[in-house]
Amino acid sequence: MDFQKINRTSLYKDVLLQLKNYIERNNLKPGDCLPTERVMAEQLGISRGTLREAFRILEANGVISVTPGGGRFLERDLAHSNLIIDMINELEYVDAMDLMELREVLELKIVELVIDKASDEELLEIEQSFSRGNDLYEIDNTFHLALAKASHNTAFYSFMKFNLSLLAKIRMRSLGKPEREKKMPEEHEELMIALKMRDKELAKTKLIEHLEAVKRSIRLDTDR
Questions:
Q1: Which domain holds residue 22?
Q2: At a CB cut-off of 8 Å and minimum separation 6, what does 99 contact?
Q3: Among 51, 62, 153, 219, whose CB has the most other CB atoms within 10 angstroms?
Q4: What is the pTM of this model?
């Protein structure tokens, strides 16, 4: 077996470390293909959604690239490199609540721009994101990125993508809780209704309610 089952108390860090060790142990070079998602998830003992979050972090930092239908490929030579360790250390210093405050400021403006600029077809595209993805991680990512894309501001879209990657560790925990599994889709649906009504104040209220629920989930997890 190439991977060890990982301890869920340090899930996020362990996934990246296991991936780093695999790459080094197998002497993978830029252009080499990683094992399939199914194989890696089974050997690591984690969900494929959790593994995808780790992949997104690596992709955002230029470590791997993704080819639709063709797998994931190593983009950087990690031999004798501390790149992934540096990524982990840097992300661990980022405070979760600071990231949530940043996300709130960002998405409140995104919501305003969506209502001002998005076509009815683009609103439908956002709504259809509810049914895209294999799990809550993917559905949540797809929804918020579709929202950012419909703002017609490429900087907001890129920054939201990066922010979601930084929040991956938090989202792995909060979206896995039974109460969030039930409430998150409802919160998305309420926000979507406000967007279709093109009611800025209602949409911003629903967005804040959604983000406050995420914050509460994070605080409860931190206090344990």
A1: 8-89
A2: 163, 166, 167, 170
A3: 51
A4: 0.61
